[in-house]
Amino acid sequence: MTAPLKLYTAATPNGFKISIFLEFLGLKYDVQKINLRTNEQKEDWFVKLNPNGRIPTLTDSNTGVTISQTAAILQYLADTYDKDHKFSYKFGSVEYYKQLEYLIYSVAEQGPITGQLSHFTRAAPEKIPYALERYGTDVKRILGVLDEIINRNKDNGLYFVGTHYSIVDFSVFGWARSAGNLGIDLDQWTYLGKWFKELSEAPEVKKGIEILQ
Amino acid sequence: MTAPLKLYTAATPNGFKISIFLEFLGLKYDVQKINLRTNEQKEDWFVKLNPNGRIPTLTDSNTGVTISQTAAILQYLADTYDKDHKFSYKFGSVEYYKQLEYLIYSVAEQGPITGQLSHFTRAAPEKIPYALERYGTDVKRILGVLDEIINRNKDNGLYFVGTHYSIVDFSVFGWARSAGNLGIDLDQWTYLGKWFKELSEAPEVKKGIEILQ
Q: Which CATH number characterizes residue A67's domain?
């Protein structure tokens, strides 16, 4: 019997990735919503869990693990609760390292750069054309790379790696959705647009988003 | 007998991380320097290896793996060539997930944000005070978080995880060095400053940097 996991999170692109994956895994989890407007994530009790003071953070009383950083949480959940590899690939396999490469791509480039575009579009107190151009161009380049990754794998289906959805798809989804919300039409990329539409319609995705609202 | 690895790289913060780790591992590797000034990393032959068109990329004829993204390369090398866990922690252990969390922190926050500071300080054609302030402040916050991570582990020594250097230390080193080169005095953080000085003096670090010059 697995005790429910505890997820400290909020309705953000990174937050959605984890709740979506937990829905696919069918695991029980308790959500504690963190109020980003009052900077609850910088309070002492939370910084003890995550020195970086950002959501999402997961604690698992079954293993004693406390973990932050979206990609690390996804990989931890796959290692621990996806032993049949329905949403991940076997440790050490060629697919495992493709999964790791693209998982990290999604958090090391797609996430930070789309995050900057979002900031300069919505949050910055002044419009800075240079920054909007810089990040707008790079987000489109990155979405093009993601399209090409699906293209290279398309004989297996519309997935980033192998023959089924994996933690890469859930990780890419969070900020791809945000790019759409920032006015970038994902359908300009043949494979990425179709991939996004299909994954968006999965009940697990809808529930993973809804639970954080 | 292990065939030499092939490393496509350049003298950048991300490039250094891999050559430094390869030096610590004592592995044979052939370096192919990629000319970033002529955008060699965007040429067709290279994009076949890495759809993102960025260095570093590693190919390993011993396993058939081709891999990009600095954190993925570091983890791959640890899994494959550090079976005694001299510079990494055992798959599935509590330390392994701390290692994964901080490894990802280094590539998902430290790297991208320091990269933006570097761009707006050195490469952007105009000085944009808002961007310089935004990234300057966040780089210092991140370096403070890294200092706190070492602080929490200091009873074990000046390491990010456990009782020895690991792929986290090599990953953090690349952009910590850059922050220093951008005029940020790392000694303002007690533990991070000492950690940086000690690691900088390791012969493997010096050789890993020198080999890319």
A: 3.40.30.10
